[in-house]
Specification:
With 282 residues, the chain is of the alpha+beta class. It has six helices and 18 strands. It has one domain: Double-stranded beta-helix (4-Layer Sandwich), CATH 3.60.130. 20% of the residues lie in helices and 28% in strands. Strands 1, 2, 3, 4, 5, 6, 7, 8, 16 and 18 form a ten-stranded mixed beta sheet that branches. The longest helix is centred in the last third of the chain and has 15 residues. It is globular. The structure holds succinic acid. Succinic acid binds next to β8 and β17. The site of succinic acid (SIN) has 10 residues, from β8 and β17.
Length: 282
């Protein structure tokens, strides 16, 4: 077995697939995490890019916020409705009345339109459809490394705009009422970013937010972005995760993309997520 254990043999980390991801057991996320366990989780997070904590019970909003803060200050979503009393929590909920999914129906990196986009996201699902509702993740280190050298060099010289108004406007409300007061973030980020901890390079564009490449004309920009969106979604870079009730997924937005499959309507799927603030991509 390729499993890894914490020094005291308590936490067990098993690779989920050669591409990315690992399943973590032996730790109850509702309890405070010791500094040794935190070091172990951070190391595994950098190694596997997405961790699936299994055998969990439903974490309270208060403990979810505290857990997220173990990894850094929390990010507040610019557009999604806030949970009462917990502005850092984004509630994920779809059921028979939902007209579209929870805003994750295409591959993306969370809120990449922010100047300092979130480092990572911690999502726990409490209600699952009887079947379906999986989440897919794609490894953007692998995508970068599989490019030819000339393509890597070409892309490394480019920055792209990540915008949000087209995506967020009206998505979480019935009309313009709430949206009117919203500021829709936008930012210019390198197409190839360096992970601040692993120092590895990853492709950093996605269909939701990346709108155009700085310095290229519209036709060139569209051509390259369409190519990259399709390329990054190559099945060879992906995994597909089937949730168990109360699993907590913790993904790295700096080197992965993810997509929630909305194949379960009219069944219900519900959970909560927090995101941890990141730094400016370089
Ligand atoms: C998200 O992008 O935060 C949602 C992912 C999911 O619902 O699986």
């Amino acid at each position: 077995m390729n499993e890894i254990k914490s020094l005291d043999n308590k936490i067990i980390v098993k690779p989920y697939s050669p591409n990315l991801g690992a399943v973590v057991t032996g730790i109850n996320l509702s309890n405070p995490i010791s500094s040794n366990d935190l070091i172990c989780i951070k190391n595994m997070f950098n190694k596997f890019q997405v961790l699936f904590f299994q055998e969990q019970s439903e974490i309270s909003p208060e403990n979810h916020v505290a857990l997220g803060k173990d990894f850094g200050p929390l990010h507040v979503h610019p557009a999604a409705p806030k949970m009462k009393g917990y502005p850092e929590i984004f509630e994920i909920h779809t059921d028979k009345n939902s007209k579209f999914s929870n805003g994750a129906e295409d591959f993306h990196s969370d809120v990449s339109c922010d100047l300092e986009p979130p480092l990572g996201t911690m999502l726990q699902l409490h209600i699952l459809p009887e079947y379906g509702g999986d989440t897919m993740f794609a490894n953007m280190y692998m995508a970068y490394e599989a490019l030819s050298k000339p393509m890597q060099i070409f892309l490394e010289g480019l920055n792209a705009f990540h915008e949000s108004e087209h995506f967020y406007k009206g998505r979480y409300t019935d009309g313009d009422k709430v949206d009117k007061n919203l500021q829709y973030p936008s930012a210019l980020h390198p197409i190839i970013r360096t992970h601040p901890e692993t120092k590895k390079k990853a492709i950093y564009v996605n269909r939701f937010f990346t709108t155009r490449i700085d310095g290229l004309n519209q036709q060139e920009s569209k051509l390259i972005l369409d190519y990259l969106f399709n390329y990054c979604e190559n099945i060879d870079f992906q995994i597909r995760y089937r949730w168990n009730k109360n699993d907590m997924a913790f993904w790295d937005n700096r080197c992965t993309l993810h997509k929630a499959i909305w194949d379960y309507h009219p069944m219900e799927r519900k959970g909560r997520r927090v995101t941890i603030k990141g730094t400016r991509p370089y």
